[in-house]
Amino acid sequence: MLLKPTALPLTAKEFDEAKVGLCMGCGCGCSYIAYLKGDRLVDLYGHPADPRGMGSLCSKGMAYVQLVNTSPFRLKGFHLRQGEEFVSVSEGDAVSFLREALKGRVAVLMDRQTASYTDYLMLRELGDIYVDAPVVDFLPSTVDFSRWKDFKFILSWEAEPVYSEVMASRWLVDGVERGAYLVCLSSIHATVCAKASEKHLLNPWKQIEFLKEPPLPIKRFLQTVPSLVLVGTSLLASPFKNSVINILYQWRKKWKVEYSLVGDLMPYPAGTLQDLFNRLEQYDTFLVLGNLLRYFPPEALDVLKSKKVITFSLFPNFSVHHSHLVISCTFWTEREFIHFRNGFGTLYRTPPVLKPPQGTFHIPYILQLITQKREEPLTDLLLEAKPIETVEEKPLPKEGILLVCDNTLVEELGRWNLWTHELDKYQKAILSPATAKVMGVRDSVEIGGVRFPVEISSNVAEGVIWISSSFEEYQPYDPGVRPGAFMKNPFFRYEVLT
Ligand code: SF4
């Protein structure tokens, strides 16, 4: 239920109206109060009565709410490719192009920040849905994250809430403060590890070995106290996926553990980018919501040249530069939006809070012009899913140097404003002193034909090279290289290099 603004304003600034919205930046869905003077946002606070955010917003949530709406980089209007140039066209011309394109076989590509659940429902009628997240058909979490504090043993397995579902970290910290024994098992030591009772810096092969037969003290915890397992969703976008699911299933069966998947996840029917790359030729038209073309390897981009690519975008990103038609769309602060892409299995609805910039369009508005169908009002926002089941065990890849290409707190969207971009400014390869020695690496390393500057850090497991996945060539500050340009399997977040 949507909260009301506090009776006493939280701001000392002058304002005309206070509006409550939910941040859709991740699966936490923190409530905020926006203080507006006219249409201008003058102050922003986490809602103190919100049981999830509890009065706080994280840096990326604050940046998204405050800066996307007024960003000088926002796209406006409709743009049609003519040769190497884009020309502005009218709504009528854009809709005619779209209507014609949708007569062919359509693949719809959706990211986490652009597509609402209602867009998903409308678009699956028009084509096959693909997402840049792991897709699961079982219950992604058996427990709400606000209950993490009640467990006495917590295993955090490649789960770094501070990088993705940020405010959920507080429940983990609360659990530790209340005496929980926290074990961190990960290929990088990040923020949560600072609170760990025990931490193991291991590559995923060794993590799996460790968890198949956990040490006796951990078994004792599992046998005697309420236990929770947090699994980073990136592990499910990797060749280790089936082993991870089977271990989780076994632990649940044997020790009745509760679990939460932490991070971007698709708990509704959809294909992955891996599925899409196997079927690219089958489609005539690609409808892109967000910036998913940055995962496309060069040969997949070549295939798109003979197809129609239509992109809904906030910014002139890589996908826009590879599109035939660009539609400038509204952001989740500017429209009714239902967030559904998270490992908590929760849907959150926010009302529009900020006025959309002129020349930006709601995705449902454009789709209704094509389909003549109205957006269906939704009443029930509960995810129904079956319990986790065992899956076919797949052989693990041969152990070698492993590239982990994943987000920090700064996601792709965060590259479009200086505030968040500066939190993690340059794309670099981070590896341990031992890995650098084995590889004979000093200042830079070449991966997939791209040379990255190197940072040596003891916070990365031996045999792992870590590179941020959120950079791309067209971002306004310190451009980097998109995953599709240097990964062999850019649909995965983990890839064996040798
Ligand atoms: S934790 Fe997530 S929902 Fe909360 S403010 Fe940050 S990005 Fe937004």
Automatic annotation (TrEMBL):
Keywords: Iron, Iron-sulfur, Metal-binding. GO terms for molecular function: iron-sulfur cluster binding; metal ion binding; oxidoreductase activity. Residues 16-70 form the 4Fe-4S Mo/W bis-MGD-type domain. The lineage of its organism: Bacteria, Pseudomonadati, Aquificota, Aquificia, Aquificales. This is Molybdopterin oxidoreductase Fe4S4 region.
